[in-house]
Structure formats: C-alpha cells, structure tokens
Amino acid sequence: MQDWPAKQPRFNMHFTPTSASWLNMVERFFRDITTERLRRGVFTSVSELVKAIDEYVVITTKNPSHSSGPRGARDILQKVVRANSR
C-alpha cells in the first residue's frame, strides 16, 4: 500500500479525520438535497435528475442561510481559546 503512493508523483495523499468540519458540511449538503429536493421529485430520466440537482445548487448558492452570521477572526480565536481551556 505504501509503495504505490511513492511511485505516483502526481498524487498527494491527504488523510483527514472523519470529524473534520468540511466533511460534515459535505454530508449535510447531501442530507439537505436528499430531503428537500430528491425525495419529493419523480424523475423519469437521468437528465431530469441532473437538472433538479443543478437547480437546487443554483437556488441554495444564491440564497445561502447562515445560522449565526459571519464571524471575524477575533471571535473564532476566542472560541478556540475557550474550548482549549476546558
């Protein structure tokens, strides 16, 4: 297993913990698109399914929802300090 990556200079291996925040966001996106769009639809072809997914992405990126609003670096660092002090 370790020989293959050494022989593949074009590929970089990155190991990310399963609790990484970006991975959680990807899982949340798939949950949301499944519950809000795909389960409600009836698709008779792959092209209809692709169109529904594309429309969902366009709509959600035009009107993003932020639960707590944007935060500055100071707020984020204070949160990290509080978490580490526990």
Please explain how this structure is put together.
The model has no long low-confidence stretch (mean pLDDT 82). The protein has 86 residues and is mainly α. It has 4 helices and no strands. The longest helix is centred in the middle third of the chain and has 18 residues, at 21-38.
Number of E strands? 0
Show unreliable segments: none
| End-to-end Cα distance | 39 Å
Q: What's the helix-strand series? A: HHHH
Helix content: 55-70%
Major β-sheet annotation = none
Estimated radius of gyration: 20 Å
Number of helices: 4
Estimate the global geometry from the Cα principal axes: flat
Oligomer: single chain
Layout of strands and helices, then pairs:
Layout: H1 3-6, H2 21-38, H3 46-62, H4 73-85
List keywords for this structure.
86 residues, mainly alpha, 60% helix
In short:
This protein has 86 residues and is mainly alpha-helical.
